[in-house]
Amino acid sequence: MLFSSIFAEKPILMKKPLLFLLLTLQLASCQNHNNKNMNEPQYDWGVAVNTPIGYPIRFYAAMVGGRPIVRELYTKKEEPDWGNALGYESHSMTYLPSSVDMVWLSYKEDCFYRLKTTIDYKKIEKLFREGYKERVPNGEVRHTTYNTIVVGVAPGGVVVLWAGRGYKKTTEIGKYQAEKIDLKEPPGLDSHERLIFSKEDREEVLNSDLTIPKAVREANKNKPIPFGLWDSYRDHQYQWFPVYEIPNGKIGDVRVRYWNGETGTTLYTDFHSYMGKEDFFYLEEPIQKRPLFKELVISYKAESGQKYLAKVWFDWEAVVAAYQKVFGKEAAQVTAHLDIRVNRNNTYLTFQLIGDNGKQTFLEPKTLEYYKLSDRNIITPTPLD
């Protein structure tokens, strides 16, 4: 079981609370496995761990269902750092998790947290069972499913779980709140085992380019930890939908990443004409709350026949300000659409948020990149014919 080998040689020297903690995690894992109905399906899945850039953690012990998180130190040095299912630990066929039990050190906060909770097994199993459609490199659309449980650990003991598959698809399972715990170093540990309790290690991790990029350390210097930020990514959801305007053109596949860590792709065959206009495209579905765009990748075919790819990144504070301006204090009574328009020179996109309450505003992207495409350099072909 997880970390049992670390303490196998000197269990007598361990303090009772520490020994009890490890045994609890191990027994809970076994119980979780034994309680599984043998008729429940098994899936091939693994675990990925995310931490926001600049906020590394070290696990003391961690179980996701019956699967241990083996690595100890986790840090992210570049985007995407939230909801990213890449970099998972080993996969295997086993039952999906119905609980998590984790103890970790938050380096920036200099404290320990523990999260012990049940999670929504039915939601997870439904996601894995139903899966989703994706376009494969030869251009065909196939059915696939998730293969990763992503664990996001943020300052303040915030934990978010997603079902994911690489960078292509990530869907939130739920958000959880850990509790601070007082975990003391027991006697008899070797040099590696003591790392999690070592002040020298904490200084090294917090000041190393290998764990936190220098630019991030400088930007965060003397600034308070933005507690609540990662909750805000989830909380800022509104009733809105995007509309893509391609003058006399055709829409291709559109890939999105939201600030709450969710990602997905809308296939061009799923788009419909908006308000009867042939060059306005939207996804015909019930109006629902959705989080805010963080990244957007649009492929399309212009009136000239040239194919393009546009990549857009949005600033968090700017996008929140725009939505608050349109939705105001009566957000529950407002529906809006984000009009995304390609200019006729195919050099720029404009973003206008238009509410059914008469309010509207333009949203300036943080970064916009444009590429001309040929049939040879489209990684995942979109017919666009």
Give a written overview of the molecule:
With 385 residues, the protein is an alpha+beta fold. The protein has two domains: 4-231, no CATH class; 236-373, no CATH class. Helix content is 17%, strand content 39%. The protein contains seven helices and 25 strands. Strands 14, 17, 18, 19, 22, 23 and 24 form a seven-stranded mixed sheet that branches. The longest helix is centred in the first third of the chain and has 19 residues, at 16-34.
Topology summary:
Layout lengths: L3 H4 L8 H19 L7 E9 L6 E8 L2 E2 L4 E2 L17 E4 L3 E8 L4 E8 L2 H10 L1 E4 L5 E4 L3 E7 L3 E8 L3 E9 L1 E3 L17 H8 L7 H7 L8 H7 L2 E8 L4 E9 L4 E4 L4 E4 L2 E7 L5 E2 L2 E9 L5 E7 L2 H12 L8 E7 L6 E7 L4 E3 L4 E7 L12
Parallel strand pairs: 1-10, 14-22
Antiparallel strand pairs: 1-5, 2-3, 2-4, 2-6, 6-7, 7-13, 8-9, 10-11, 11-12, 14-18, 14-19, 15-16, 15-20, 17-18, 20-21, 21-25, 22-23, 23-24
Any descriptors?
385 residues; alpha+beta; 2 domains; 7-stranded mixed β-sheet; 6-stranded antiparallel β-sheet; 7 helices; 25 strands
Count structural domains: 2
Strand content: 35-45%
Content-based structural category: alpha+beta
Helical amount among residues, as a percent range? 10-25%
Could you tell me the number of beta strands?
A: 25
Whole-number radius of gyration?
Answer: 23 Å
Number of discrete helical segments: 7
Largest sheet: number of strands, sense, barrel closure: 7 strands, mixed
Low-confidence stretches: 1-20, 30-35
User: On the 0-100 scale, what is the average pLDDT?
Assistant: 89
Distance between the termini: 55 Å
Task: Please tell me what the overall shape is.
Answer: globular
